[in-house]
Amino acid sequence: MVRRWISIVTASVILIIVLLGAGFYLAVRMTPFQPSVLEEVHQPSIVYAEDGSRLMSLGSPNTDLTYDQIPKDMQDAIVATEDHTFWTNSGIDIRSIFRSLFVDLSSGSLAQGASTIPEQLAKITYLTDQKTFSRKFKQIALGLQIERNFTKQEILAMYLNRIPLGESTVGIEQAALRYFGIDLKKEPNKLTLADAALLAGLPQAPSAYDPLQHPKAALDRRNQVLQNMVHYGYITEAQAQAAAKQPLDVSFHSFPGDGWSSDPLLTNFLLDYLNRHGIPPSEVMQGGLKIYTTIDPAVQNAINEVFWSGKYDSDFPGATTGTVVEGAAVFVDPKTGGILGAAGSRKQGYVPLGLDRVYQASSPGSSIKPIMDYAPALQTGNWTYTSILDNQPQDFGDGYEPQNWEVGGPTRVTLQYGLEWSQNVASVWLLQQIGISTGANMAKADGIPLTSKDYEHLGIAIGGLINGVTPMEMAGAYTAFDNNGIHSKPYLINRIVNAQGGIIYHEGPQQNQVMSAQTAADMTRLMQDVVDFGTGQSAKLPGWGVAGKTGTVQYDSGLVGSHPNWVRDGWFDGYTPTLVGSIHIGYDESNDEYHMTMSPVDPSANAAQIFHDIIALALQNEQAQQFPEGPYPYITGTAEGVNYVGSTTPTKNSTPTNSISGLHATYNAANNTVSLSWSGSFSSPVTYVVTRVSTSSSDETVPVGQTTSTSLTDSSVQPGESYVYTVQATSEQSGLDIGQPVSVAVSTGAGQSAGPGNQANGIGPGNATGSVMGNGTVNNTTGNSVTSDNGTNTAGGGGVGPGTNNTANTSTPTPAAPPVPPTPPGHLNGGPGHGKGVGGALGSNVVGGAGYASNTSNGTVQTNHVSLANGATQTNEAGSGNGT
Questions:
Q1: Where are the alpha helices (DSSP H) in 83-151?
Q2: Structural domains in the chain, sorted by start
Q3: Predicted TM-score (pTM) above 0.85
Q4: Is the C or the N end of the chain the one with fewer CB within 10 Å?
C-alpha cells in the first residue's frame, strides 16, 4: 500500500513538472520580446478638452536616472526588499518559485508572487496585473529574456525608473521629488538612508504605505526595510537603529509635468478615473498618450475657482472642532453624459491628491425624492401636482416614523408643496401609495445602485439606501429630467491614442429611457419651484432656468446624542438647460468630532450656493436660457395654494390637438351648484368624464358625470367645501383615455353662520380672524377681462374652507408656514403668484404649492401673501397688461 502511494505521488510530481515545462516552453515561444521597449525615452501624455484645446500634459520627459545616478542606499534597500538574490540569480529564483507554486496550487490561485526584479520589470512593461498562471509563465519567460539582453546594472536602473511609487509618481526620481523635494539628478546625496528605505517599501503596496495618507503604516514599513538591509548585510544594526529614529519628514511637492501645478483637481479626478478603467497612472505619466476628454474648460475652471482658489471658502460650512468640511462636484452634459468638469476634494493642507469623493457613496437625503418618489408617481398617470398627500407624522410599520423638518407643519399637502418644501412624511407616504417597487425600479433604471434590501423598506423614499449613492451617480440620474426622460451615463474619455498612433481606449454615450418626456417636463417645473421658492433658492441664477433639489442628512440619534442639529451630509443636485451638476459636502469620518450644523445655514443651502457659484462662472459668457415653456401645467382656479394640472400651456394663435384647455369652475351660491366649462380639440368623438375630490374633508374621488359637451353643472356640492375637479377625455369608440386629464380648484363658500362667541366677520375672543381678502385681477382670456374675489369669512378657522364654529374664549392655532421670498414679476405666463398663507388657508389644513395664474397677456401677476398673527391669510393678486 505504501509503495502504491509513493508511486502515485511520484507520478503526480513528474506530471506536474512535465505540464509546467510544457507550459513554460509554450509561454516562451508565444511571448514576443522587444528589448527596444525598455530603451524608449519616456514622453509625457497630453490631455485635450472636448473642443480640442490642450488642457495639460502629465509626466515629465528625461526623468530616467542612470545606474550611477542612483544612490547606493537606494539600490541596496530595493534589492534587500524586493529580490535579495538579484545579483546572483539568472532572472528567476527557483526556490521561491517552487515555494510559491506549492501555495498557489494548494489555494487554486496565485496567492504568492515570488517575482524577481527582472520579472517585475517584465510585468510593468509588457503585461497586465491579471493574476493567472499563463501570465506568470509569460512573466518568467520575459524576465529571462531581459536578463539575457541587459546587464544587472541596466536592469536595476530600468526597474527603479519604471516602478509606481504612489501619489501619481513613477520611478524614484519622481518619488524623491514628490515626497522629499529632492532632485536626484542634481543632489543625490541629500537622500538619506531613512528616505531610501521609505521609497523601497512602497512598490509592494504604494497606496497602503503612502506616507502622506498613512504615515503610521509607512513608518512601520520603512523600519522593516531597514531590518531587511541588516539581515542581508547591507548595513549594521546600529545604522538601522539610527535611521529608524528619524521622523518620516515627508510633505507634498509638485514637480514640472505632474499636473498639480496646473490643474490639481482635474489631475486627481482624471488619474483616478483612468485607473478605475484599467489605465494605471504609470502608463499615463510615462506613456506618451494623447487623451481626448469631454471636459469643458469653462466648467472645469469654474469648479477650480470655487473649490481650490480659496475665494469661495465662505460657500462651505465653517469648520467645527478644528476639522475642514470636504466636498465633491461633478457636472455633465445631459444630452450625452459627457463629463464637463469635476473635483473630488478641496484644498487640504499638504495632501492635494486626497480622496476622490466623486466616487464616495453616502446617503443622498432628500435629493433622492424626485427620482424615487415624485417622478415615479407622475409616471403612473394617477397623480398630479394637486394630488393631496398625507403629511401627518405616523408609524409606517416596524416603528418607522419619519419626521418633517418643520415642527407642527401642515398635515395634508399637495404633491407640489411636498417636493418644494421637502416634506419627509408626505414623500414616504407617496412611495407607500405607489409601491416601493414602482419607485425603486425607476431609480434603478436611472442609475441609482440598489440592493434587494432597499426594496424592503420605505426609508429609501428620503435617502435611506443601504449602500448610498455617489455624486457621479446622482449627476447621471438627474440627466433624465433634463433630457426628455433619457438617462445619460456619465463618461470622461472620447478616446486615448498611444505613442504609435493606435486607439487603446474609447467611450461614448450610453443612454436609456427612464421616464416619459412629459414626466421629465413636469418634474422640471416642480424642481424649478424648489429653486425659485423652496429649499433651493440659493441656486437661483438670474436669467437662467435652474431646477434641482436639496438634501440634508443628519447623524443617527445615538451618535449625536443631545445635538439633533448636527448634520453629516449636504447635497444639491440640479440643472440648467445645458448642464447637470451634483454637489456634495460633508466628512469622511462619522463621529462626534466631524459634523456640520443646521444653523446658521442648512448645509444643503451651502451646497446650493456652491452650485450657483459654479454655474455663474461657467455660464457667464453664454446666452441665458430658460427651460422650454411647454408642455407645462397652468392654473385657472381661484383656491389659494392649489394649482391646475394637465393640458399644454396655451400659446397665441395655437390650437392644441387631443387636449383639453381653458377649464373653469364657478360656484353659484344662490342655487348651491358648481358650473364647469372647458374647451377641447380632439381628432375623434370623445366623452368627458368628470370627477371631484374634496380637499377639506375627504380625499375620496367622487364621480360627477359624463358628457359629450364641454360643460357640466354639479348640483351635489356642499357649502363651505373646497373641491378639485378633474376632466378626462375618453374615446367614444374604445372607451380609452385620450390626452391628459386637467384639473381646477374651487371653493363653495366658507360657512357664513357664526358659532357662539363669533359675530359678523368671524372675530371672537381668542380666535383668529377668519377672512381672506383678495383684490385680484387675472387676465384669463382676451382683452382686459377682470375678476374680483373679495374673499369669504369662516367661523374662527380663517381662510378658504368650512368654519370651525369655535365657542367663545377658545382659540384654534394654525401652524406657521415656511417663509416666502418675494416673487419676481413676469415669470413665464404672467408669473406664478407664490405664497404659503398656511395660517388661514383651507380649513382642512391642506397647503398647496404655487398659486399660479394663467395670463396670456404680456402682463404680470404679482402675489403678496401675509400670514397675520391672529391667523388670517390676506391675499392681494394683481394682474396687469393688455390681453391679446
A1: 94-107, 117-126, 133-149
A2: 62-243 (1.10.3810.10), 365-492+516-618 (3.40.710.10), 659-879 (2.60.40.10)
A3: no
A4: N
